[in-house]
Design brief:
Low-confidence stretches of chain B: none
Shape of chain B: globular
Largest interface: A-B, 70 and 73 residues
Mean pLDDT of chain A: 90
Structural class of chain A: mainly alpha
Low-confidence stretches of chain A: 1-42
Cofactor (chain B): Mo-bis(molybdopterin guanine dinucleotide); [4Fe-4S] cluster
Number of helices of chain A: 16
Protein name (chain B): Molybdopterin oxidoreductase family protein
Strand order of the largest sheet of chain A: 10-3-11
CATH topology of the largest domain in chain A: Formate dehydrogenase/DMSO reductase fold
Keywords (chain B): 4Fe-4S, Iron, Iron-sulfur, Metal-binding, Molybdenum, Nitrate assimilation, Oxidoreductase
Helix content of chain B: 25-40%
Number of strands of chain B: 28
InterPro entries (chain B): Asp_de-COase-like_dom_sf, CT_Nitrate-R-NapA-like, MoPterin_dinucl-bd_dom, Mopterin_OxRdtase, Mopterin_OxRdtase_4Fe-4S_dom, MopterinOxRdtase_cofactor_BS, Prok_molybdopt-oxidoreductase
Organism (chain B): Acidicapsa dinghuensis
Distance between the termini of chain A: 34 Å
Structural class of chain B: alpha/beta
Number of strands of chain A: 12
Oligomer: heterodimer
Chain lengths: 518, 734
């Protein structure tokens, strides 16, 4: 990246120089401590341009912050953001017993991580890590509004702007920095708690664990945050986030519910159709068309998730790096193979079972990759093999239901439905056990949502699946078999809805009365 | 929106790039293009009385941004979150735009001439029928000084009623009364700069980090200080302290008397200062007899060693500063507490020197202006109603007969309300304040307003809970739309300028006062040749000349140039205009004999003690995002986002006993009323037995439960302590 105006930042003695990665030495005391009549810093307090192996970072001094939130307002003014989007936020942590109570504040923009998970997940290369400054920048023009970065970042930094259909985030006021101006948050802070520093990347990689972590913050391990946090010398042992009792259901993402369930249904169905062709010499061309229709419906639905559906095809771009790109790629290939396979079945072309097998394999790979993309650091409840099991069991169960219908209730198909049901039930049980036993706030929070606000949803999901299974021995007519399939599909839709709404993201501590972002 | 554009948005072709673009601005730097202005107008913040200098960016007739004025001696470019979002107040929803007169129960639009004609006619009719003093006026601390000066003359000389007071009585009248009793005059003696030079800073009932965050910059700049914070609640400020004194509610007076006794007993006081510049030491010594260390420790709940340590630190300091705000003022013992604070400063000689001052940190942006010029509890220029010399002097300056100047003040704010309840006040003019949210024990106020024959409310916003009850609403210009001056806590006078015109038919309060005077037929007598605020300022300069609050050397041009000048600033003042000035540096006080008074005070328990029915003590206060009754900040989305609603703080021990959980909705009930469905915050910030409720929110109004108890001297309400119980709201998930 070129920074043409950086050359304007003159490099005289008034700037901050680093002696090592974690200590900051003002070279000119008068400049830093400012005139006594005003008590605030002088205008230009910018460090020099980072050199080789260095980058800019934020320093946040918790001992100075008084939680006034000037930085939050200044950031929104700087970027013209609406009030429901806060690129810089202030949260609270608290501990101790009266009168030795301590409440401290965290102020956070983007941490401009060494290994930015927002960037590695992005399917369209909207993110770049600036070569000179290390700033993680986001391009609104490149962004397609898939919001995958909002899951990938464990700090909840990227935020979706529905008015624009794209994500946005703190860029350390890149445009200001290149002009020698302080970022808006740092300039506005009355307590001088936010500063820009230079960090030596290699040293930071060795030593970040102490200074990058803080109570009330997600682990810096996920992405190696570069923000240096100065903590008070003494913090009470029980200091914790003040918002631990606040559990808000997450966004349902209906297009994604439709997309994941229907792709899994379609993959299961094509696998069944292919198996029946190979092992039972049956050709189910109508069923193939229905399954293909489901796949098309799923892919169409997925574009509705995007803020900029017209640019959906861009999502293929970063297949070397992004699981989302890989998912899009595999499902596209699956859809192409499925189309070809369906056509061969329809027109009675012989010797094409290899095409069916290809469709099934691509589809199963697609489902696996689809599950893999949910294993993100910012969503601990998803980050488990159980997500793969969940998506897999949906595929098996719905595919088996298809086979049950196509074979008019063949015994093997009914067993498949039964085992699919057992698989699904085990997945639910294991997930509940994992979440319920965990001491991790985000996992336990998911359990609280599943067994609290959403307990009825969960019970209905299980009841539907049980009813479907109970009907299996009676599956004498097509109508009953279709009923079973519909019960299972409904159960899976509710399951997927719960998957999305009951996940508790990792995040910085928020305020006690935090409102949900729109 | 056309179909094409709708499609472009939904499909993602149009991502509002131009709205979200950035460019370089010579003033703001590289920033959102929407925030960039064609011109910048210097002004002063209109919220609190820290008095930060700011610049308003105007583009196409709209104020699109604000920035702190780097050249201003108060804030050097910094602003608090309210200030940073202040431009949104101007075009906030709910601005009053047209005069509205109640006809058949409905407020209907009328023209200005009819509005003011009706007002004068109604007021005169009431005064004819019930006597001139049946008219009451309640103003504010948020007009410009020129308007306060004009209003005082208009009320006292034009309408001829003394029953005029400001909402400053809900806020700073205690400090005023305390200063007058100790020093012979109102006027905070110190300067903000003292915060940077004091080696001991004692903050009593002052949560500056929440309420005056820009002053914290000064604390931060003073690295060698010892900061001692006295507060029953572990506030943001308490957490900054080197020594935190978690006193029991309203035990501050016992603490200070305890400190005084140690300082005197251990011979740590400044004998030469006391001998030369004070009187009353022996009486004071006598009055301190009960305040042994053990007694003070017992009343305050503090460790005796901590009290002694504080006394020694304060007494041995080279320069010690005491700052206080509402923890002291909002009390039936407030004035005495201020006097005790002044006693402590006086006997240690901590006044009139760099870093050394007792200092009230004022509330509203121009509460000081009304104190100096307002004609409410005194005659403009800190003159006394009781002094014949002062009355003659002002009459001469105004070219009127001295008989027209009252010989004592009229009713104070709470007494005007009591007067309305008793049927003695029959008409009321309320300006720039929202008592339906801010007055204690709101039911009494509602009763009072219901008794009136005619209620005029002049405000920048409508509807507010108060304007909704008015017979006549006069739409006023607000900050950003008018010219004048504000005086801040440290007596620094800064210029306020209009950036844009008021909305629709709203007019500046100054213009409204001139129009009322015109209708009354006294415009030429009271306001000869006045056209603009500058005319009032020039007269005020003459009226203040030679007084403690001497403005005579100031001009609008000087104020604009220098950004802010502390009074006294007489003609011919040689020092730099922006230099810090202190009162009483020569040891000469404003009393008859020039000596400050050491006054005896007596601690008493607060009036409404907790009991079995109401076992908890309620404390009230603020949050940094909001201003007073939220008529302004409640309309600003970013501030609302950060602080959307009220909460009740309760200690975990009490919550456990009441079987309450975090975020439960609860009722807070006192003998007078209840606050309903408020969100519970369980926290060790408050002590067991106490609860805390922010007072900004009309929807969960703390003043539905506060009491009608007032300081006998200052008439300030005892907002801070009353007995309540807390219950889970019905319909709450168990």
């Amino acid at each position: 990246m070129e920074l043409p105006l950086l050359t304007q930042i003159y490099e005289d003695g008034n700037f901050l120089r680093l002696t090592n990665a974690s200590s900051l030495v003002p070279t000119d005391q008068a400049e830093i401590s400012a005139p006594s009549s005003c008590g605030v810093g002088a205008e230009n307090r910018m460090p020099r341009t980072p050199g080789h192996g260095e980058q800019y970072r934020f320093h946040f001094d918790m001992t100075k912050c008084i939680g006034c939130k000037c930085c939050v307002v200044a950031c929104n003014e700087q970027n013209g953001n609406p009030a429901d989007i806060l690129w810089r936020r202030v949260g609270e942590i608290e501990g101790g017993v009266y009168p030795q109570t301590r409440r401290h504040y965290l102020s956070m923009g983007c941490n401009h991580c060494l290994e930015p998970t927002c960037m590695t997940g992005c399917p369209v290369e909207a993110y770049t890590k600036d070569g000179l400054t290390g700033i993680v920048r986001h391009s609104a023009d490149a962004c397609i509004g898939c919001q995958y970065c909002t899951w990938n970042c464990s700090y909840g930094v990227p935020q979706y702007n529905a008015e624009r259909g794209v994500v946005g985030k703190c860029d350390m006021c890149y445009g200001r920095l290149t002009r020698g101006q302080e970022p808006a948050c740092a300039a506005a802070c009355p307590e001088d708690a936010i500063r820009i520093e230079i960090v030596k990347v290699a040293e930071w990689r060795e030593h970040y664990r102490g200074p990058a972590n803080s109570p009330g913050m997600p682990s810096a391990d996920d992405s190696i945050s570069t923000t240096r946090i100065t903590l008070p010398a003494k913090l009470p042992a029980d200091v914790s986030k003040v918002d631990l009792n606040q559990l808000h259901p997450e966004h349902a993402h209906w297009p994604l519910i439709v997309m994941t369930v229907l792709t899994q249904l379609s993959v299961g169905a094509f696998t069944a159709i292919c198996c029946l062709q190979v092992f039972a010499a049956q050709s189910h061309r109508t069923a193939a068309l229905v399954a293909l229709l489901m796949a098309m419906l799923a892919l169409t639905a997925s574009t509705l998730h995007l803020g900029r559906p017209i640019h959906a095809m861009r999502a293929l771009k970063m297949w070397r790096r992004s699981w989302l790109s890989r998912e899009v790629l595999l499902f596209t290939l699956f859809a192409l193979a499925a189309t070809a396979y369906s056509a061969t079945l329809w027109f009675g072309v012989r010797g094409t079972s290899w095409l069916g097998a290809l469709t099934a394999v691509l589809g199963m790979c697609g489902v696996a990759v689809s599950a893999r993309l949910y294993l993100v650091p910012g969503r601990p409840a998803w980050k488990s093999p159980l997500t793969v099991a969940e998506f897999g069991s949906t595929t098996v169960l719905l595919g088996a239901c298809g086979a049950d219908i196509l074979t008019r209730g063949a015994e093997d198909a009914r067993y498949a439905v039964f085992w699919g049901f057992i698989l699904a039930l085990m997945t639910i049980g294991l997930k509940l056990a994992r979440l319920g036993r965990s001491k991790v706030h985000e996992l336990h929070g998911s359990w609280q949502l599943l067994t609290g606000v959403f307990s009825n949803h969960l019970l209905i999901r299980i009841a539907l699946a049980c009813t479907g299974t109970a009907l299996l021995p009676l599956a004498a007519t097509t109508w009953i078999r279709i009923t079973i399939a519909l019960l299972m599909v409904s159960s899976e839709f509710i399951g997927r809805y719960l998957f999305f709404v009951t996940v508790v993201p990792t995040n910085m501590a928020s305020e006690y009365l935090a409102q949900e972002a729109a | 929106m056309s179909l094409m554009r709708w499609f472009a948005r939904k499909a993602g072709l149009d991502i509002r790039s131009s709205k979200y673009s950035y460019s370089e601005d010579p003033v703001l730097g590289f920033t959102s293009s929407r925030k960039q202005a064609d011109r910048w107008v210097n002004s002063t913040c209109g919220y609190c009385s820290v008095g930060c200098g700011m610049q308003l960016g105007v583009k196409d007739g709209h104020v699109v941004s604000v920035r702190g004025n780097r050249a201003h001696p108060v804030n050097a470019g910094k602003l608090c979150p309210k200030g940073l979002a202040e431009h949104y107040t101007i075009e906030a929803e709910g601005r009053a735009r047209f005069p509205l007169l109640r006809k058949n129960g409905q407020l209907e639009r009328v023209n200005w001439d009819d509005a003011i004609g009706t007002m004068v006619e109604q007021f005169r009719a009431v005064q004819c029928k019930y006597g001139p003093e049946s008219l009451g006026i309640i103003s504010t601390g948020q007009l410009v000084t020129e308007e306060f000066y004009a209003l005082g003359k208009l009320v006292q000389l034009g309408f001829g009623t003394r029953n005029y007071d400001g909402n400053t009585t809900l806020c700073m009248s205690t400090a005023v009364a305390g200063y007058k009793r100790s020093f012979g005059s109102d006027g905070p003696p110190g300067a903000y700069e003292d915060l940077e030079h004091a080696d001991v800073i004692l903050l009593i009932g002052a949560n500056v980090a929440e309420n005056h965050p820009i002053l914290c910059t000064r604390l931060e700049a003073n690295q060698s200080k010892t900061l001692i914070v006295v507060d029953p609640r572990v506030t943001k400020t308490a957490m900054m302290a080197d020594i935190y004194l978690p006193v029991k509610p309203r035990s501050d007076l016992a603490l200070i008397n305890g400190l005084l006794r140690i300082v005197i007993d251990e011979d740590l006081y400044d004998k030469s200062f006391v001998a030369s510049h004070t009187s009353g030491l022996e009486d004071l010594r006598e009055s301190l007899t009960p305040y042994t260390l053990d007694y003070a420790a017992q009343i305050t709940g503090l460790e005796p060693e901590l009290i002694r340590k504080t006394a020694l630190l304060y007494a041995n300091a080279k320069a010690a500063f005491i700052g206080w705000t509402m923890g002291v003022n909002h009390s039936t013992k407030g004035t005495e507490t201020v006097n005790a604070i002044n006693n402590l400063a006086l006997i240690t000689g901590n006044i009139g020197r760099k870093g050394a001052s007792p200092f009230s940190i004022t509330g509203q942006c121009n509460a000081m202006g009304t104190r100096e010029t307002g004609f409410t509890s005194g005659i403009p220029g800190y003159r006394k109603f009781e002094s014949e010399m002062d009355r003659r002097e002002i009459a001469r300056l105004w070219n009127i007969s001295a008989e027209r100047i009252p010989t004592q003040r009229g009713l104070a704010y709470p007494d005007i309300i009591e007067g309305a309840v008793a049927g003695k006040i029959r008409a009321l003019w309320i300006l720039g304040t929202n008592p339906l949210v801010s007055f204690p024990n709101i039911d009494v106020l509602k009763h009072a307003l219901g008794n009136l024959d005619f209620l005029v409310v002049q405000d920048g916003f409508h509807p507010t809970p108060t304007t909704e009850l008015a017979d006549l609403v006069l739409p006023a210009a607000i900050w950003g739309e008018k010219e004048g001056t504000y005086t801040n806590s440290e007596r620094r006078v800064s210029k306020v300028n209009a950036a844009v015109a008021p909305p629709a038919e709203a007019r500046s309060d100054f213009d409204i006062f001139l129009a009322v005077a015109e209708h009354l037929g006294c415009r030429e007598e009271l306001f000869p040749d006045w056209r603009e605020p500058r005319d009032a300022f020039d007269e005020w300069r003459r009226v203040s000349a030679g007084r403690l609050c001497d403005y005579s050397g100031m001009t609008y041009e000087l104020l604009d140039q220098s950004c802010g000048v502390q009074w006294p600033y007489p003609i011919g003042e040689k020092s730099r205009a922006t230099a810090s000035r202190r009162l009483y540096s020569n040891g000469q006080f404003e009393t008859d004999d020039g000596r400050a008074r050491l006054l005896s005070t007596r601690w008493e328990p607060f009036p409404e003690q907790p009991n079995s029915e109401f076992p908890l003590i309620l404390n009230t206060g603020r949050t940094v995002e909001h201003w007073h009754t939220r008529t302004k900040t409640g309309a600003i989305s970013i501030l609302q986002r950060m602080s959307p609603r009220a909460w009740l703080e309760m200690n975990p021990k009490d919550a456990q006993q009441l079987n309450l959980q975090a975020h439960d909705r609860v009722e807070v009930i006192s003998a007078r009323g209840r606050v309903s469905k408020i969100e519970l915050r369980i926290t060790e910030i408050v002590a067991p037995g106490q609860v805390f409720l922010p007072f900004h929110f009309a929807e969960t109004n703390a003043n539905q439960i506060t009491q009608s108890a007032f300081d006998p001297i200052s008439r300030e309400p005892n907002y801070k302590q009353c007995a309540v119980r807390v219950e889970r709201s019905s319909g709450n998930p168990a």
